[in-house]
Amino acid sequence: MLHSACKGFRISWELLVSALRAFGWFRVIPLCLVLLFGLISFGYTSAPSLLLRPFYPLEYQDYISKASAQYSVDPYLVAAVIECESNWNSDAESYRGAQGLMQLMPDTASDMVRLGLVDGSEYDPEDLSDAETNIMFGCAYLRYLIDYFNGSTDYAIAAYNAGLSNVEEWASAATALHNAITFPETQAYLIRVKNAHKRYQELYAGTFEGM
């Protein structure tokens, strides 16, 4: 009985192979496998991007591109600051009075005009709820901080949160910045912005090229 079953299986297999050969499936199957593995590979590499982009949206690309180019600031850093400061809410206002996408104080914006970094006749420091205006002042301020701390992005990010005087004090300590920071909020802020910066670089690579 077992012999008959095996013989029947062999005959069935031979018939299946003959049918596949007749229809050319031996040429199609390898192609199907290549396509299948290609789809699996695409899904594996794209899944992180598809899953994470809703948590790291990117808006106002034209404004970010224009302002970051004008002040030579990394546009992905600008996006990271916006994400951490306001979560892309142009109407956001803190209890301290910081306004807009990049949560700028009106006095800080006025300082950028006074220092000649922003043209006050074109961008009103009192109109920080306007997305383009806010991003322009925010990029100018980031450039000012980066230059103030001799090109250190980390010190600039910390100062954006805690203010110049505090970071100057921390900078004088004989230790790394993250160890010198005495404000837990600023420690967390520095980590958040740096992580968001990396995410935006990964998720939107090439977005600002040629803009």
From TrEMBL:
InterPro entries: Lysozyme-like_dom_sf, Transglycosylase_SLT_dom_1. Keywords: Membrane, Transmembrane, Transmembrane helix. Pfam families: SLT. It comes from the Bacteria. The chain crosses the membrane at residues 22-44. Residues 62-177 form the Transglycosylase SLT domain. PANTHER family: MEMBRANE-BOUND LYTIC MUREIN TRANSGLYCOSYLASE C, SOLUBLE LYTIC MUREIN TRANSGLYCOSYLASE-RELATED. This is Transglycosylase SLT domain-containing protein. The lineage of its organism: Bacteria, Bacillati, Actinomycetota, Coriobacteriia, Coriobacteriales.
